[in-house]
């Protein structure tokens, strides 16, 4: 596996598969120009726990959901983010890939484990799955209220007690910094995905201006597009 920093984002090549994590320039027409042999399919993302199959690019931006999977060759499964976490899976034996848009609501509703469950239903085994976690808002930048913190931590069965843990840090009576990255990794581990099969860029979209951030830029924020493809 190798990682290349391109004008549009980070390209990770792993054999017959490419994972791409887009930056501010990763508009769909730029991606289509840079990768003319790929077919792109986007979901109408709604911060849900819906996992759907994308069969071809005729479904582009027509289906509601926040995770999709495919075995179709040269079909790029897109994930659109601006602080939310893009997560991709590969099961090479089955030629099966998946892409997930996981904001805090998606993490809380366990969209990542539910996507893995779908892959398991299709015959994948935990030890066969490679996972890739892209740029998203990191703990120092992710201040949330108690209710949001508790919803996120409930997804991994962690009660929010004391002044903090590896998953959060209390900064006031009502506010905490939550580590979405660690929660996502805990969800993967609980589903049997070994840490050595998880790749993580660990980039904070809030502090890194090469990426869009809704929390930083509010209504002026754009969106970056990431994708996974079997070539």
What does this entry show, briefly?
The chain is of the alpha+beta class and 231 residues long. It has 6 helices and 15 strands.
Descriptive report:
The protein is α+β, with helices and mostly antiparallel strands. The chain has six helices and 15 strands. Strands 1-2-3-15-7-4 form a six-stranded mixed beta sheet, with no helix packed on it. A six-stranded mixed beta sheet has the order 5-6-9-8-10-14. A hairpin with a 3-residue loop joins strand 1 and strand 2. The longest helix has 11 residues. It is globular, with a radius of gyration of 17 Å. The mean pLDDT is 96.
Helix content: 10-25%
CATH homologous superfamily? CNF1/YfiH-like putative cysteine hydrolases
Structural class: alpha+beta
CATH architectural category:
4-Layer Sandwich
Mean pLDDT: 96
Task: Characterize the overall form.
Answer: globular
Do you know the CATH topology? CNF1/YfiH-like putative cysteine hydrolases
The helix/strand order is: EEEHEEEEEEHHEEHEEHEHE
Write down how many β-strands occur, each being a DSSP E stretch of 2 or more residues. Answer: 15
Task: Please state the CA-atom Rg, rounded to the nearest Å.
Answer: 17 Å
């Amino acid at each position: 596996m190798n990682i290349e920093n391109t004008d549009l984002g980070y390209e990770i090549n792993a054999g017959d598969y490419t994972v791409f994590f887009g930056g501010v320039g990763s508009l769909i027409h730029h991606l289509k120009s840079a990768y003319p042999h790929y077919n792109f399919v986007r979901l109408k993302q709604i911060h849900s726990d819906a996992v759907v199959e994308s069969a071809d690019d005729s479904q582009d931006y027509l289906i509601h959901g926040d995770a999709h999977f495919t075995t179709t060759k040269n079909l790029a499964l897109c994930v659109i983010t601006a602080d939310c976490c893009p997560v991709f899976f590969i099961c090479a034996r089955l030629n099966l890939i998946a892409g997930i848009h996981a904001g805090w609501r998606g993490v809380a509703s366990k969209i990542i484990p539910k996507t893995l469950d779908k892959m398991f239903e299709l015959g994948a085994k935990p030890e066969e799955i490679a996972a890739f976690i892209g740029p998203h808002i990191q703990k120092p930048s992710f201040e949330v209220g108690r209710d949001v913190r508790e919803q996120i931590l409930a997804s991994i069965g962690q009660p929010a007690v004391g002044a903090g843990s590896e998953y959060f840090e209390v900064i006031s009576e009502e506010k905490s910094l939550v580590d979405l990255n660690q929660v996502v990794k805990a969800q993967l581990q609980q589903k049997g995905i070994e840490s050595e099969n998880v790749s993580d860029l660990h980039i904070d979209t809030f502090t890194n201006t090469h990426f869009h951030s809704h929390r930083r830029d509010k209504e002026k924020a754009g969106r970056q597009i990431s994708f996974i493809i079997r070539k």
